[in-house]
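Sample A.
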Amino acid sequence: MFKVFADRGGTFTDIIVVTNNQAIIEKLSQHTERFLIVNLPNQEWVIVYKLLSENPEKYEDAVIQGIRDILSLPSNQPIPHKAIEVVKMGTTVATNALLERHGDRVVLLITKGFKDALRIGYQNRPHIFARHIILPTMLYEKVIEVGERYDAQGNELIPVNIEQVKEDLQGVYNTGIRSCAIVFMHSDRYPDHEQQVARIAQEIGFTQISISHQVSPLMKLVSRGDTTVIDAYLTPILRRYVNQVASQLPNVRLMFMKSDGGLTNAEQFQGKDSILSGPAGGIVGAVQTSKRAGFDLIITFDMGGTSTDVAHFKGEYERQLDSEIAGARMRVPVLSINTIAAGGGSILTFDGSSYRVGPESAGSNPGPACYRRGGPLAVTDANIILGKIHPQYFPPVFGTDGNLPLDKEIVTEKFIQLAQEIASVTQNHQTPEQVAAGFIAIAVENMANAIKKISLQRGYDVTEYVLCCFGGAGGQVACLIADTLGMKKIFLHPYAGVLSAYGMGLADIQATRITGVEQPLNQALIPQLIQLMEFLKTQAQRELSNNESRGEEKVIQKLNIKYEGTNSTLSVDFDADVRVVQTAFTDEHKSRYGFIQPEKSLIVESISVEIIQKMDTPEEPLIIRTRPVKESLQPIEIVKMFTAEKWHDTPVYSREDLQPGDCIHGAAIIVEKISTIVVEPNWQAILNERNHLVLERTS
């Protein structure tokens, strides 16, 4: 049987398979340059495989192609569903559709008089001195104003004009729009009018109907409306992708990672839950593997080809209700992930006066210059010319036929040309490697600033944390990032290069329900909150009732609380004793903002119930030292690497050759089939019995 965990990223798709099929293992063992195979206890193996997310000349979908490659199946042969137990995956399909504005056509139905409410938004001025204000493009194409109204107490002021709604919706349907978002005033509490209009839309034939009281049952028309529009805009494209994958995997249990870090069955996967699907897998993988390694205070650092994601972990997953992604506002629980446009594919440019790294990315097609597709210089190219990446240790999957190694010659040529261009403009004569090091320094500073934003700026001392580093490009800059932040320890899991995919396999099934409260926090409110919690719990359990593997369940109850007259909520654990809740809130507020306001009363804005259903997760074997302690580890070769402003004779070690207790002093390079780890000067790398690599600063 096969268990498949996959992460379809912006540049690479990572696939991990856990299997007990010895015949497949023997076949793949003949292609060790493409597949990493790891032994597990009980006659099981882990197969690790990477391929480009987009390669239109060779395949339609990377995940399906990856499964075919592992099973050695031609494209015209169906995948044997009985061989596959489960497929758990994260996808960037919805994220890319939002970034590129390629979602479905949407009509917005909103209470009469509020036609432009979502366009006006909150009138934020992020660039306060900008003279020319550029409003974000709206995701909906048409607006229908519906004559209906409830007041804030639930009194019906204006009933729905059924005939008018039918006529307006039919007119829009005739233009080819099939997706609608229904957002009425006060419908988070009084949803009758939304339900009436949804029934009409269904009768007319709309295939996607997103209703605000179901999508985001919280007060605030604008954020509830934005979330509903996003759901209507993305769910159809997501549904088509899910159906496309499911059609290739008939009768296979297919699960997707949600933005809040939980898995859900494919048929329940919605647009609003999919924006951070891939990065969420990385956070779960980082947290679960770090806990197994004995680390509790973690900064996760995921550097991929297109972007870098960082997150903070101190005992529990951090989630936020309000977020803005790709210019679109949402109000659903998502993992608190700070994403910046700095990855291995971030394009390097000189604008005549300064170096710039990103935000544009070369992606996987054409990719960086070294990918042999005519791409521009990128961060990966800078690491090649610095000697931190060597083509012979990278999988040969480049060029139009996908079988060539990285191209170092074109990279050298382009950096020489760039250095000459910089010298002619600035009269500052630098070698190509000095230019490359300058670009890397800027990328490192950008990524370190992203970590400061989630740690130092929120009252956490980052020097007490371990940097859990992963992603295909993470190991190349881990020491530089830690040096910039004053961090002393870095954790690298053996699957660090594909940890987002591994995280899919470590995640549990999860269902969350949230509802608005907006009442003062006091002991008299507690019975009402308990009753609401029970209702939400029943709803969440109903969602989970379809699951075949009913594991152990854990229930987490949270209150989102704010000071009266303010708008910033903090999430605290629910307790029947109101004093415990108050203390938890004031402690968190003091830590986050540096002050408290005891004279103000507390307001419970909303509550949430999360049910986690435990799943079987892969075990990690202990490894035994077989080489005598006195026998020193031998490098594969000695290469030149430019770091700390000079060239170093740098030993290259294979991760597969390392044994528990081995200690490698920088400067050094450790190569794996799925990533490259650079041990900078003043750092050392130690392997433990769980095959975990821990980097520590020596001075």
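Sample B, a different protein:
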Amino acid sequence: MYITKRDGRRAEYDITKIEQAIFKAMDAAGQISVGKYKELALETESILKAKFASIPPSVEDIQDVVESVLMSNGFPEVAKKFILYRANRTKEREMKSNLMKTYLELTFTDANDSDMKRDNANIDGNTAMGTMLKYGSEGAKDFYEKYLLKPEQSKAHKSGDIHIHDFDFYSLTTTCCQIDLVRLFAGGFSTGHGFLREPNDIQSYAALACIAIQSNQNDQHGGQSVPNFDYAMAAGVAKTFKRIYRDNFAKGIFLLASDSGYTDDDVRAIFKALEVEKGLKPTLSINPLFEEALKSIFIDKLGEERYSKINQLTKDSSVRETDRAVFQAMEAFIHNLNTMHSRAGAQTPFSSINYGTDTSPEGRLVIKNILLAEERGLGFGETPIFPIHIFKLKEGVSYNPEDPNYDLFKLACRVSSKRLFPNFSFLDSPFNLQYYKPDHPETEVAYMGCRTRVIGNTYNDRHQITYGRGNLSFTSINLPRIALARRPNIQGFFDDLQRSMDLVLNQLLDRFKIQCNKKVKNFPFLMGQGIWLGSEKLNPESSISDVLKEGTLSIGFIGLAETLTALTGKHHGEDARAQNLGLEIVSFMRHYCDEKSKELNLNVTLLATPAEGLSGRFVKLDRAIYGSIPGITDREYYTNSFHVPVHYTISAYDKIQIEAPYHALTNAGHISYVELDGDMAKNTEAFEKVIRCMKEAGIGYGSINHPVDRDPVCGYNGIINDTCPGCGRKEHEGYIGFERIRRITGYLVGTLDRFNDAKRAEEKERIKHVSKSATSDKKMAHYQ
């Protein structure tokens, strides 16, 4: 006879366990009857054999029969004790389960003492909504691990061979999307709680952009990015200027020609007729046809002199007022994205905006003012965390002094030297330039803030674009572990890497099948409002399986530096041989992804993983297996993707040259940082030189890290050591310490106290081993 245990396994039936349970219940009730408990156990066994002749009883079935036998034999008090004992045992089992231990930590541990409550820098784990979000998150992970993953996938994820990112959303949604605001705003859109009309003013454009990002964030677990922020907002600038110009012209007539007989209504009617009948309207760029038409209407009653004065006054004041309106709109946009929430009110939307290539007067005004608003900061001068700004650099547009937006590139350098944003994307890098078509912004590569990139399309080569597409899911491989298991056998390393990639791809495809079973109604904004490419043609009950194929399935990796150290004794920042091997490893992975893309007719891509909490998780698990190995497991983190380790002192120029080739290989996304000391706001020329070096080296997406500190008492912004240069107070003197903003995986986070252990350790290494300043670096100087 067998029984079915609680975890589903079969075990041999043992009557002595029933005897012991009845004896303990009798003892607890003070009714021990010698030999009786054995008789009751035998009666229980007889009932079980009769009742469960064809299938083995479960533990719960056996306990039910014991209770019934005790009651029918005149032992109600013993039965009560048995029921109580049974309930307590169930409670103890549940309390000992991993999920219950997790809930215990979430409930009673402060975020400063809990890695789990700090694993997402964008969620305050101490708040009610933040904790509730983590309850759901951890419960979902427990369910997926037990019921959705295949045994080999669950084992690999749990043991640290791989890491399934955003595991709590495994069965629910996709990762991220590039939102085309131009198309979304045309005709208006709905958030599910009412329809929003097409905006007609730059303030409305900025407000609806925030709403779009927030609404889409509720449908996806990753970040939301706008690939065409300058182009989208430019339409709002044009509408704003048209209104302001018309109103100012009417004011000019009232002030200088009140005897002309024109009323405000007359002026509005004339401007409307010009636009409807002749397609002429006031624009920031000079329009001779509009000028001539306007003059021909008003010259008779106003006269040459008064018309000229009114016209000039209108132009000057309208440009000035529009400029101010755009700045206020951009400032409100930044303030809103740092204060509004999504996902049950627990999280600020992960948001990114790409801009820099619109050369129209309206687009340039947007770019200028979003940069100036970022430079000003939040209400008390704080550095904004969101959105991540990404300035697109392109020869002929913004890169060279003769380019129309070069002045805005200079401004971007100035702002980034103070606020860490914008980052910079390089459209001339060969792997980005191959898709670029002039006057087609959708072919300009735009990045998610963390580094995600999407443009190539194996599934549909007619859609080699950025708009309306994003990552579906990604999973990362623990490269150092493979190297540690195989060192110094390089061929063995590649054999195991192949097997790991097979495992990850199968897991991604399993997750993709779950995603494909969803319908449009499961994503009311992302799909219901046509944000995702192709979804505008679907109805609420339509399957999204075909349109999801426009997205990417990405295999990521972390710790290339430690991997090379395990295999060769040195990392790629130290040794050319290690660099060659590093390129061979990443090329191998990229080739695998390309071949699988063709085989499956899907977009399988390679990601230079944004490490997040993963960098600390992998190394802790590996140290437990292999011990503390110098240069590999002796720190609290593995190095981000293909980066040269932050603790290794290297010139900015050399770091860029070493990392640049990996950008071409990681088509799902990448980023390179240069660490600079000193107050970069005082040396923007050096800052620009580093950015130009990145472009010439073939970097796809990059930025410069430098200290950004603030004294919240006096408002001083700049580098602060132990004493504030603004007011002279010392760290923690009084009631509050200094704010220290640092970049983690592409996003900014607050003071060091809020970092997890691995990231705090990495930040300390950055502070101790910053790269040499570009101004003092001989190689950089020679390069220039």
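Observation for Sample B: The CA atoms of residues 299 and 305 lie 9 Å apart.
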